[in-house]
Amino acid sequence: MHMTGNTILITGGGSGIGAALAHRFHDLGNTVIVAGRRLESLQAVVGDRSNMHALPLDIEDPAAIAAFAETLVSRFPDVNVLINNAGIMRFEALDRARDLTDAEATITTNLLGPIRLIDALVEHLAARPNAAIVNVSSGLAFVPLVATPTYSATKAAIHSYTQSLRDALSGKVEVIELAPPAVQTELTPGQSTREGYMPLEAFIDEVMGLFAKQPTPAEILVERVGFLRSAEAENRFDQTFAALNEFARKAREGSASKA
Ligand SMILES: NC(=O)c1ccc[n+]([C@@H]2O[C@H](COP(=O)([O-])OP(=O)(O)OC[C@H]3O[C@@H](n4cnc5c(N)ncnc54)[C@H](OP(=O)(O)O)[C@@H]3O)[C@@H](O)[C@H]2O)c1
What we know:
By secondary structure, this protein is an alpha/beta fold. It has a single domain (about 5-259), classed as NAD(P)-binding Rossmann-like Domain (Rossmann fold). The chain contains 8 helices and 7 strands. It has helices at about 15-25, 40-45, 60-75, 100-125, 150-170, 200-210, 225-230, 235-259, and strands at about 5-10, 30-35, 50-55, 80-85, 130-135, 175-180, 220. The chain has a 7-stranded parallel beta sheet, with helices on both faces. Helix 5 (about 150-170) links the parallel strand 5 (about 130-135) and strand 6. Helix 3 (about 60-75) packs parallel to helix 4. About 40% of the residues are buried. The model has no long low-confidence stretch (mean pLDDT about 95). It binds NADP nicotinamide-adenine-dinucleotide phosphate (NAP). NADP nicotinamide-adenine-dinucleotide phosphate binds near residues 12, 14, 38 and 41. The site of NADP nicotinamide-adenine-dinucleotide phosphate (NAP) has 29 residues, from helix 1.
């Protein structure tokens, strides 16, 4: 992936990983458009930076995605990089019948959202020079967290979808997966100060170093996520599954007792 001279759309660019990526790519000389539901957050990320723009988007809504893609391409015809970063993570208990609203919203946002947005932009991107699609999955794509089962399943699905997309777009659009470990953002309440989670700036430093490698790796994997990404290949899935879920339970209990 080229590191400069792009026009980059980042969904979920109003906070966390998306906002940090937006600033780093903008610092490198790219035009950056951040998209999400909360316009104030997007505008705060843009601040007084030129060549940086905020566009509202609700990725849960198919009609909004179609309208957004039209606006995007007409206002920013040079857009050549799509970073599918918007996502939600909800805790769910599987041991009783429940309201499935959270599960459904998670699938709509984390899986159907990127599928729909890629579909709306794929022909435009394929016609642009140095085009790339970056899909943000998770270490939980490879070893699931029991407390967030639908979230983990959507990330496993995004991993799979990205593999197909990479082959289908070969020679036209570079397709990259970014699979973060647990990072200090407000993806879940209290997570931005949760002990044992990777500080956001350290994560983004490592990520930008990996993006800059030529060729960019097909999977952007900071060192810390290897524990999850390689668990199955290294024949330690069961131990990793147990350790991950124990760690996450203790981390949440720690946050709750401090709150
Ligand atoms: N932090 C971690 O530990 C971690 C680990 C692995 C993977 N990830 C992934 O990294 C990505 C970014 O998460 P983050 O940690 O930076 O959390 P975050 O700060 O909560 O960012 C998520 C972003 O997604 C946007 N979003 C949510 N629903 C949306 C919708 N319906 N339409 C448009 N935008 C929507 C949110 O903006 P609005 O609310 O304004 O719409 C928000 O800016 C997610 O895909 C997440 O699954 C994070």
